[in-house]
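Summary for the funding panel

The consortium committed to producing paired sequence-structure records for every protein in the target list. Below we show the first two records in order, beginning with the earlier of the two.
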Amino acid sequence: MKLEDHIKHTEELFGIPGKDIHQWLDGFFDTTSFERLLAGQGPANYDPYSHRKFRHCIEGLEEAYEKFEGKYSREEIKNVFETHVKDDYRGYLPKRDDFENGTFTEKYHDAAESEDKKILSFEELSDYFQGKSYRYQKEKSEKFFDSFGSRIVLPTILAIVLFISYIFFYVVPLFEDNMLNQKKLMVKELTATAASVITHYQELEEKGILTSQEAKQRTIDEIKTMRYGSQDKNYFFIIDMTPKMILHPYRPELTGQDLSNYTDEENKSGKKLFVEFVRIVKSNGDGYLRYHWQWKDNPDKTAEKLSYVKGIPQRDWIVGTGIYIHDIAEEKEALQLHIFQIVGITVDGLFMLLAYFLLQSKRIENDRKRAEAGLKEVKDRYRALVESSNEGYLLTMDGRIVYSNFKLQQILGFTNTELHQTDIWDIIFPDVENNRRLRKHLSSVFKNDTDSGEFEAVAADSVGNYIDVIVTTSRIFLSEKHGHVISLRPIVRKSYIGVESTTSVPTDYKPIHASLIKEIKESNRIGHVVQNMNKLPGIIREMVETGARPKALCMVIGTTYDEVIVRCIELSIDEIGPPPVAFAFLSLGSNARHEMTMFSDQDNAIIFEDTTQTASDIIRAYFLKLGDKVCTKLNASGYHFCPAGIMALHPKWCLSQKEWHKKLTNIITDPTPDGFLEFNVFFDLKCTYGNIDLANSIHSQIQVLMKQNPLFISYYAKNTLIQKMPVNVFGQLKTERQDGEKTLNLKEALRPIEIFSRIYALKHAIVTPNTINRLNDIRDKAEISEAFHKETVYIFNHIWRLRFFNQIFKHTDLHKVDDELNIEELNNIEAEHLKEVVSRISKLKRKISRDFIESVPTEKI
C-alpha cells in the first residue's frame, strides 16, 4: 500500500493521519545503499526491504512508543502502527520470527490480492509444501460467496441499483421539470392575454375615446372577471411599482394598500413577495416567482404557487397571475408508486432466481471448503510429522526438489536454497562405489520410469565428510505430476560420537568437546556451523550417561554457544564489511550466566563506540544489520529467536555507549517496575565478542549510579519480593493445572535464587554473571554462611538438573518442550524431596526482606 493510502486510512479510522509514523515504518536503515539501488548500482545481496523485519512486526511497537513519545499518545501510536502493518499484511500482525521461518516472507507484503495462479503450478506446489500458499487460498475463499458473489450476485445487484438510481435521480426529476415548464409556459401565455386587455384600454385612452380614469376602471373591471382553470378560480392581479395593490379579486381588503412589507409568511422565509415582483420587472421586464399563498378563495389555507408577472410601462403597472403546483407533486408521487410496483415485481423475480443459484453455489462451496480443510489438515499433519522426524526428507516433482525438511538441512549442513540446486544430487551422493546403484536409481527416478526403492549409501555433507545413510525413495502422484519422497536416515554405528571404539563409555569428554570447538572455529560458512552443532547433543548425551554434574553440562553448552556466536559474527562481518567503530556483542541473561539448557533461546545485545566522525544513522544501520545477520544465523544453528525480542537485531538492544549509560541512568534514578525488568536482563551480561572495555563500562556505570542513588538497591529488592515463591504458606508446592496435569514451573522455581545472587552481587560490586560463582563471591564477602551457601548451591543445581532432564524427556517423547514439570509423574520420595528442596527457597526471601526493605521510604514503596 502506498504511503498516502496508509495516511488516508488511519485518518478515516482514528482522525489522525500520523504521516511521520508511516514514514518511519517504511523508512530505510541503509539509505545510502537504497539510493545506489535506485541509481542502478545495487550493492550485492542488498535487500531494500530489510527494514520490514525490524519495524513491520509486533516487536517494533515498543520502538515506535519511544520514537514518538510526547507527540502522540500511546493509544494513537498503537492505532497508527497496527493499522499500517495490518494494511500491508492483510490484517495480520507478524512477529520478527515470521520473516525467517518459511511460512511468511516479505513477498507476502507485495503480493497482489488479485493474483490468480493456476492450481498447483510448480511454484505453488513448492510454496504449498513450504506452508505458504494456504493462507492465500483461504483468503480468496472467504470473500463474499467466493467467485459466485463477485461474478453473478454483485453485478446483478449493482445493475438493479443503477436502474433504480437512474429512474429516481434522472427520469423522475426530468418528468417533474417538464411539468413545471409546461405550467410556466401556460401562465406566461395567460398573462400576455391580460396584458393585451390593459394595452387595449390604454390605446382607447390615447385616442381620446375614454378618459384616463375610465380606461383604468374598465381595465380593472374586465381583468377582475377573467378566470381560468378547472373550477374557474384562477385569477389575475395588478400592482403598481410602489408596490401598491391595484386589483386582487379574492383579497379586496388589500386594494390601495402599500405592499412593501408584505411577506411570504407560510414558509417563514421572510420573502417580500410584491417587492420581489417589482425587482423582477425592473430587472427583466417579466419573470417567475415561487411562494406560498392563500388557497384560491379559502383564507384559512395556503399552498405553493408559481406566478408570472409582466410589466406595463405605459401605466407603470405590473400584471400577473399564478397557479398552484401541488398537482406536480401528486403526479410525481403517482409515477414513483407505479415505478416501485414495476421494479418490485422485477426484483422479486430476480432475487428468487438468485436465491436458487445461491443455494446451489453455497452447497458446492461448502463441499469445496470441507475438501480444502481436509487437505490442509492432511498437509499440516504431514508437515508436522516430517518436521519432527529424525530422518531427512526431500520431495521432488518432475525431477526438481520442491521441499526439504529442517532435519535434512541439519544432517547435511546445506541450506534450504542450496538443497534446491539442480546439481545437488551429484554433491550429496558422490560417485563412489557404495553409491553406484543409488545414482542409477535416481537417474531413473527423475525420468519417472522406476518404482520405489531402498539403498545403503554414502552421503557427503557440506563440509565434505561422508555419512553412512539409508536412502528410501517412494513414488507419489500429485496434481497430475510424477514425484518421489526421498528420505535419508543416518546409520548409527556402535561408537562414541562417530568414532569406533571398543567401549561406549568415554573416560573424558573434554578432548571431544575441544575438537568440536576447533571445528566450529574453522567453519567457513553457516552450514558448517550447523553441521558441527549437530554433534553437541551427542556430547551432552554421553556426559549425562556418565553422570556429569550440572556445572559441567552448563560449561559445555555455554562455551559451545559462545564459539557459535563468535563464528556467526565473523561470518557476518565478512558479508557486510568491517564495523565503522569499535563494538561489543553482549550475551545477556542465562546466556551470559552459562546456565542454558539444550533448548534455551537467544538473549543478546550490541554496544558500540560513540564517535562524531561518522554519521550516527549510518553506524546504527550497520550494527542493526550485523545484529540481524548474527541472530538469524544463531536461529539456524538451533538457538531460536527470543520471544520477547531481547536481541541485537532490535534497535532497543543495539545502542551506543552513551545510549546504554543513559538507559541505566533513567532506570536507577527513576525506578519503575518496567525498568526493573530491563535491569534484570542486562545486569547479567558478558562480552562474548569485541571490545571488552565497552562491556565493562556498563558495569562501571552501574556502580557510579549506585553510589549516587543508594536507595535503588532497596527499591529493587522490594520489587523482587513481588516474585512468587514456588511454595505456599503451608510449605506445599505451588502448582498449576496445565492441560489437566498438576505442574510446577522449574524456571520460575530457579528465579528466586537468580534474583538473590543478583541483588547481593549488586551490593558488593560483583561482576561475574554466573549464579554459582556469584554465590561463591557472596560467601567470600561474609554475606552468607558456608552452610547457607552449600544449601543454596545444592538447591540451584537440583532444580536446574530437573529442568534440564525434564526438557530432554519431553523432546524425546515428542512433547512440547517447556519448563512445566508434571508433579504427578514423580514417585513419593521424589515429590517429598522436591518439596523439601523448594521450601528452603523462602530463606532467601526472608534475608532480602531483612537486609533491605526496612530502609525503603514508605512513600517510595
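The next record, for a separate protein in the list, is shown here:
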Amino acid sequence: MSAQIRSRRRLGALVVTSSLVVSGAVVAVVAAPADAASSTVVITEVYGGGGNSGAQYTHDFIELTNNSTSPIDLSGWSVQYASAAGTTWQVTNLSGSIAPGAAYLVQEAQGAGGTTPLPAPDATGTIPMSSSSGKVALVNGQTALTCGATCSTAAGVVDFVGYGTANDFETAAAPGLSNTTSATRKVPTADADNNSTEFAAAAPSPKTLTSTPPDPDPVDAKIHDIQGSAHLSPLAGKVVGNVTGVVTAKSGNGFWFQDPQPDTDPATSEGLFVFTGSAPTVNAGDAVTVKGTVTEFRPGGSGGTDNLTTTELTNPTITVTGTAAVPAPTIVGPGGRVPPSTVIDDDSTGDVETTGTFQPATDGLDFWESLEGMWLGIDRPQVTGPTSSFRELSVVPAGSSVRTVRGGIVLQKTDSNPERVLLDDVLAPIPDAKTGDKLAGVVAGVLDYSFGNFKFLPTQTPTVVDGGVQRESTRRSSPLQVSVATFNVENLDPSDGAAKFDGLAQTVVRNLASPDIIGLEEVQDNDGATNSGTTAADVTLNLLTAAIVKAGGPKYAWRQIDPVNNAEGGEPGGNIRVAFLYRTDKPVKFVDRAGGGSTVPTTIVTDRFGRPHLSSSPGRVDPANPAWEAARVPLAGEFTWHGQSLFVVVNHFSSKGGDDPLWGRTQPPVQVTAPKRHQQAQSVRGFVDQLLAKDKGANVIVLGDINDFDFSRTTDILVGSGKTALVDLPRTLPVKERYSYVFEGNSQILDQILISQNLRPASSYDIVHMNSEFPDQISDHDPQVARVIPLPSWVR
C-alpha cells in the first residue's frame, strides 16, 4: 500500500482579487493596504521558475531597487519567502549597500534545467520558490516572520509581494507566474502598494531596470480561442476581454462558464474556469462577460510537476449581462463524445505540453483535455471501483472495453482504460458505491484536473443503483490438498483495535475457509508506528490468531523474523514485515530449524539422502542484497504435508509510489520503481533456482504482494524459463478475472501466487474478491488461495 497525501484545489481562505460589474456598477473587494509605500528599497522582480522545464535561467531570484537619492546599507536586512498560504518563512540574509537607482540581485535555489546563469548576484540563498504562487517580503531584520495572511503589514516589512494564489499581498495579488514568467514591477521607481496593478507577468530580466509598458488593451477572445487545440493555451499570459458565456457551476474560489455558441472543432473546449480567489457572487445561468489574464495553473504548485495544467482566467473583471439557459450537457459515451478505448497517449516521448501533437480522437489524454472546463453528462455511468477515502469514484460510460466478471475494468499491458474518469466531491457529496454499481440518469458536472487525474465534478449527488456484487468466499480444500493463501493485512498492529483484528479473523474463517498456510504481508511491530525501537511483533500476531479462534476458526501458530529497526520501509517505527500462519490441527507441520536472523541468509542444504532443506527455517532470503534496502526481506519456510516437503516464500516487494501517473504530463509514464522490483524478483528467483538445482521436483510456492502486474517484467523474472519455470497462477485465469486490487478504478493484479510445475496438475486457485471492490474494506487487497498436493519426487 502506498500512502497518498492530498489537499483540495485552491479552496483555502483567499482574498478576492476580482471585480464584479452588475448593471454598470463596479464592486471591488480588496485587502487592506500595507504600511506607507516604500520610498527607499522596493522589490522589483520575483521569479520562482529557475531551472524548471522550459526556463531560461538556472536559478530563482529576487531583485531589489533603491528608489532613494542616497546609498542604502542592507546589513541586517533579509528577503524572506513563504508558500502561497504558508506561515513558515525561509530567510536569505543581505549585506552590503545598494546605490541610488541601482538593482540588487538575490540569487535563490537552482533547478535541474535552464540554460543561462544569473548575472553576478549581490546575495545568495537557497530558497526554492514556487514558479506559480507565493509570498516574498523585504524585511529590515533577519528573524524569520511567523505570520500567515498579515505579513504585508507586519513591523519591519519594508516591501511585500504576493503573487498567484497568495493569501497575503499589497492590495491585491500580482499575477500567477510560470516557468517562463516573473512578477516584474512595471515602473521600478514607483510603489503604490498594489501588487496587482504594479506587477506584470513578464519574461525574467534580472538586473535589467527598464519600465514595463502599461498593460496592453485586452485581446477579444472566445472560450475556444483561449482553450485552443493543445494542452496549453495559445493565449497564455495575455489579457483577454469580452469573453462571453453562461455560468454552469461554481466552487468556493471561482466558477465555470461555457460558450453556448461553440465552434465546429471538437478539439477545442467550450468551457473555462474563472479564478476569483473567494466565493464568487455569480450563479449558474448568469450570462457573463469576463476580462482576465489567461493562466496555466498547475495543481500542486512546485510539488505537482507531474500534473497537467488547467487553463483559467485570473485577476478577472466580471460583468453580469443577464440570464440564460445553462447549455445542455455534452454527453460522454454512446450517443455523444465517445472516449478512446485503449490509448492514453501513444505519440509522446516526454512532456505532452511541448510535444506538438494533439489527437483527441485516438488519445485519451487529449480527449479529456479537449473537454476541460466543459459542462458534461454521462448517461447511467457504471462504477468500476469503490468510493475512496478522498471521496472519489471511478466510472465509465456504457460500452467500455474489457470488464471484469463483477463490473470493473481490467488494466492490461496495452489498455490503460482511458474511458475512466473520477467523480470528485468538490461541488457535491459523492456517495458510497462499489464496483458493479451504476448511477441513475444523466450525471452532469464540469471537468477539472488535479492529482494526476481528470476529475468530473457533479453539481448534485448521484443516486446509486445497486449492482448486486457480494463479497466472495472460497471453498474448502479436499483432505489431500494443502491450501496456501496470501493476505495483505494493511499495516496491522495492536493500536488498530479489536474491530480490525476481528474483521481479519472473519475473513480468514468465512471467506478463505481457514487455509492451512497463510503468508501475511504488512505486519507491524507491537507498538505500530510509534518509533520506540521495538521490533517484536508477537503481540500483533497473537492478537490475530486469538481473534481467529474467537471467530470460530482453528488455532494457528505463527513464524516470522524481526527486522532491523527502521530498515525495511513502511511507516517509520512500524517495522513492517512478512510472516507465516499455519494450522495446528491439520497435517501441515512447520519444520523449525534454528539459526535464522534478520541479517542471516537461509541457504539450501541436503540431508544424507540428497533431499533439500533450508539451513534455517524460518529464514530470510538474501537479506544482504541491495535490492532489499528499505524493503521487506522475503521469508522462507519449510513445511511438510503428510510427510512431504513444501517450501514457501512470502514476499512484499517495493511499492509503485513515485512512478509517474497514468494521466500525467510525462508520457509514456516513467516507472522509476520498476528496476528495484526487477532486482528483488531476481533475488527470489535465484533462491528458487538454488532449491530446484538440488531437487528439480521440489514443491515450491512463491507468493505475496509483488506490487506488480501479471504482465510485468517483474513477474517474467519470477516465472523464469525452461523446465524450472514457475507457474504464475494469475496468468492461468481469463483476463476478466485477473485482479486483486483496484486503483483509481482500474482492476489489476498486485498480489500473486506462483507454484513449481509439479504442483500444477492437482492445483486449484481462487482470488477471493471481498475487499478491493468495496468502500468498507478490512484491507485494500483481495486475498488469494491456492490448493495443491505435494508429492514425493519418485511420483513425479
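Regarding this second record: The helical segments are 195-198, 223-227, 364-369, 498-511, 538-550, 674-694, 713-719. Residues 58 and 117 are 5 Å apart (CA to CA).
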